[in-house]
């Protein structure tokens, strides 16, 4: 088990941990949460042995294999597939050893047999296929898997780092914000993969639905301590809310927030239709009202004001072809955005969600068709790369002063305080800000302009759980129109009333909720894999395919005696294992040892030894035949 006992740590003059204790048992999946800068990533460095604590002990079982998701990726010319496969260091080491042994003169047959036996034991021969499956789940096409790592953007390189960490056989896996650069379909795939992971898992994440689906415990950084909660993130919220309720100083504030949320749910219920999406949002808002007390001490509290004037519609896309050049990704899109309309965009990676939002924002002109804007349209657009547009030499106050020179400094400071820029922080240079702080500032700038249409493309990247909660509350009550792309299902469920599915070149209403979309996505991915396999097969020249079939038939015929013998050995192994289990069951019977049955005990022991010897002989033969077949097929 992992044991932190009396651990204290200071960095940059800040006390991150003070005599903190924590135990994590083998096989547990634990979410690590806390405000940005509290020390979550530093905890990982302690566990990896890359940092020493100022006091106390950090104990990780000796011999545990640790997989860690790096945050930086070198610009290498290795293919994406090879880069991910490198995550299994033992497999790569065995491959090099086998190559060296085969090239040695004279060849060492015994050494080669031992290496191949070890390769089979770690399932190394399936390594390339497993790496390709990981990349496929993370959104890389078959063609992308052969591209050099240096050709991918920063976000996609982070995905490669995640794939490399998943490829590594591990007793302990440490993942730091694994969903930050994933879209919803890749997040759902990762969720299912981690649910099957048999080892100990520690995840730093600000995605509450992701944590709910994966973890069975939460470790929360609270006042330089590590507080352990049983259950998933929702259970943590309930437990923390109950604990805070016992503190009188928080009680009135807590009750006021609960009353506010419950009043909002009642107002929404009064105007909600019976549509499944609206009912799903009602349930989500109800849950949010119940867990609101867990966030009463959040430093973030703000609203999103909207423009007073509106047009109807705000934007109207008519027969719009959307994309770049002569091959648009979406065709004949019909979409009118009326005041108050709240839309979530769903769809697989690369289907055109971001292109549709860019077209609505006016950053991408339609290839064909029309984009008509209302007279009073005021857009607030948060793009995936919005942080790069900030002036790193300017302060948060200066960013807003440039938009509204006549605004008083106090009004700017009051406004920025809700986004976590209180006191002197409002005058600090953006250059020293973290990714989360830059994201908060970008949202503040957007809100300051009082839009009546919010276009949000992955707005929660880099935001911690408290800021995501504050944004969810603000968006839920925003009176204007919203179009949202997000992998954060909690944000989608609580802020939009309808979904549009972007897939197969179309943007059409989706009649269902997020659970329905999950099922649709699984079916879509199965169909896509079937199409890819069919395309790969059809793309080969007819002569090549004919020759491949002829060669494959000849190889099967040549290997038929070995294949038949392998099947016989497998049947004999199954029979031997069955007999061995029966003998072990007889030997485990307590009545056998009641007296007078010494000959029977001796007979059963002899039979057990013979069966074990026979099984070992069969296993050795099976291994030799398998290696021979593998080598013949690879030639």
Automatic annotation (TrEMBL):
Q: Which GO terms describe its molecular function?
A: ATP binding
Q: Which CDD domains match?
A: ABCF_EF-3
Coiled-coil intervals in this record? Answer: 552-635
Task: Provide the transmembrane region boundaries.
Answer: none
Q: Short name of one Pfam family for this protein? A: ABC_tran_Xtn
Entry's Gene3D superfamilies?
P-loop containing nucleotide triphosphate hydrolases (3.40.50.300), Valyl-tRNA synthetase, C-terminal domain (1.10.287.380)
UniProt keyword annotations, A-Z: ATP-binding, Coiled coil, Nucleotide-binding, Repeat
Q: Where is the ABC transporter domain?
A: 2-248, 315-529
Q: Which SUPFAM superfamilies match?
A: P-loop containing nucleoside triphosphate hydrolases
Q: Which InterPro entries match?
A: AAA+_ATPase, ABC_tran_C, ABC_tran_Xtn, ABC_transporter-like_ATP-bd, ABC_transporter-like_CS, ABCF, P-loop_NTPase, Val-tRNA_synth_C_sf
PANTHER family in the cross-refs: ATP-BINDING CASSETTE SUB-FAMILY F MEMBER 1, ATP-BINDING TRANSPORT PROTEIN-RELATED
Protein name (Swiss-Prot/TrEMBL): ABC transporter ATP-binding protein YheS
Q: Which organism is it from?
A: Microbulbifer aestuariivivens
């Amino acid at each position: 088990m992992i044991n932190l006992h009396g651990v204290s740590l200071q960095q940059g003059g800040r006390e991150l941990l003070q005599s903190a204790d924590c135990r994590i048992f083998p096989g547990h999946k634990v979410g690590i949460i806390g405000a940005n800068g509290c020390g979550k990533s530093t905890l990982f460095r302690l566990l990896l042995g890359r940092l020493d604590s100022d006091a106390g002990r950090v104990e990780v079982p000796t011999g545990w294999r640790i997989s860690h998701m790096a945050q930086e990726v070198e610009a290498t010319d290795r293919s994406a597939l090879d880069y991910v496969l490198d995550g299994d260091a033992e497999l790569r080491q065995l491959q090099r050893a086998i190559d060296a042994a085969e090239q040695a003169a004279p060849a060492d047959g015994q050494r080669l047999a031992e290496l191949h036996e070890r390769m089979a034991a770690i399932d190394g021969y399936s390594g390339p296929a497993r790496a390709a499956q990981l990349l496929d789940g993370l959104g890389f096409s078959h063609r992308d898997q052969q591209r050099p790592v240096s050709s991918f953007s920063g976000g996609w390189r982070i995905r490669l780092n995640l794939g490399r960490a998943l490829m590594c056989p591990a007793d302990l896996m440490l993942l730091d914000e694994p969903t930050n650069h994933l879209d919803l379909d890749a997040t759902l795939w990762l969720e299912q993969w981690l649910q099957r992971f048999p080892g100990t898992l520690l995840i730093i994440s600000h995605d509450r639905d992701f944590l709910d689906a994966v973890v069975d415990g939460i470790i929360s950084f609270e006042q330089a301590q590590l507080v352990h909660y049983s259950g998933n993130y929702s259970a943590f919220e309930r437990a923390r809310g109950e604990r805070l309720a016992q503190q009188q100083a928080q009680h009135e504030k807590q009750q006021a927030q609960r009353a506010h949320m419950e009043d909002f749910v009642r107002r929404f219920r009064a105007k909600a239709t019976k549509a499944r999406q609206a009912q799903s949002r009602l349930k989500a808002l109800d849950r949010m009202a119940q867990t609101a007390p867990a966030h009463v001490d959040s430093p973030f509290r703000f609203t999103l004001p909207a423009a007073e004037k509106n047009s109807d519609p705000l934007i109207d896309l008519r027969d719009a072809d959307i994309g770049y050049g002569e091959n648009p990704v979406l065709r004949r899109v019909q979409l009118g955005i009326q005041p108050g309309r709240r839309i979530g965009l769903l769809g697989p990676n690369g289907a055109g969600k971001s292109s549709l939002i860019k077209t609505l924002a006016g950053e991408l002109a339609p290839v064909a068709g029309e984009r008509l804007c209302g007279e009073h349209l005021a857009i607030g657009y948060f793009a995936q790369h919005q942080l790069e547009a900030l002036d790193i030499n300017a302060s948060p106050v200066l960013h807003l002063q440039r938009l509204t020179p006549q605004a008083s400094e106090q009004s700017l400071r009051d406004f920025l305080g809700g986004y976590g820029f209180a006191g002197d922080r409002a005058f600090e240079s953006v250059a020293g800000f973290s990714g989360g702080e830059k994201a908060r500032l970008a949202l503040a700038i957007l809100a300051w302009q009082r839009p009546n249409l919010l276009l949000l493309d992955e707005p929660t990247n880099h935001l911690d759980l408290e800021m995501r909660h504050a944004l969810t509350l603000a968006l839920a009550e925003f009176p204007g129109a919203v179009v949202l792309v997000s992998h954060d299902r909690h944000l989608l469920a609580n802020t939009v009333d309808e979904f549009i599915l972007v897939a197969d070149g179309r943007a059409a209403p989706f009649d269902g909720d997020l659970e329905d979309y999950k099922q649709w996505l699984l079916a879509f991915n199965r169909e896509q894999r079937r199409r890819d396999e069919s395309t790969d097969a059809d793309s080969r020249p007819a002569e090549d395919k004919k020759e491949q079939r002829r060669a494959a038939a000849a190889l099967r015929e040549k290997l038929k005696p070995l294949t038949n013998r392998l099947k016989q050995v497998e049947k004999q192994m199954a029979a031997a294992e069955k007999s061995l289990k029966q003998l072990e069951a007889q030997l485990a019977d307590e009545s056998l040892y009641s007296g007078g049955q010494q000959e029977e005990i001796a007979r059963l022991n002899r039979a057990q030894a013979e069966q074990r010897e026979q099984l070992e002989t069969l296993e050795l033969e099976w291994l030799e035949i398998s290696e021979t077949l593998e080598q013949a097929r690879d030639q």
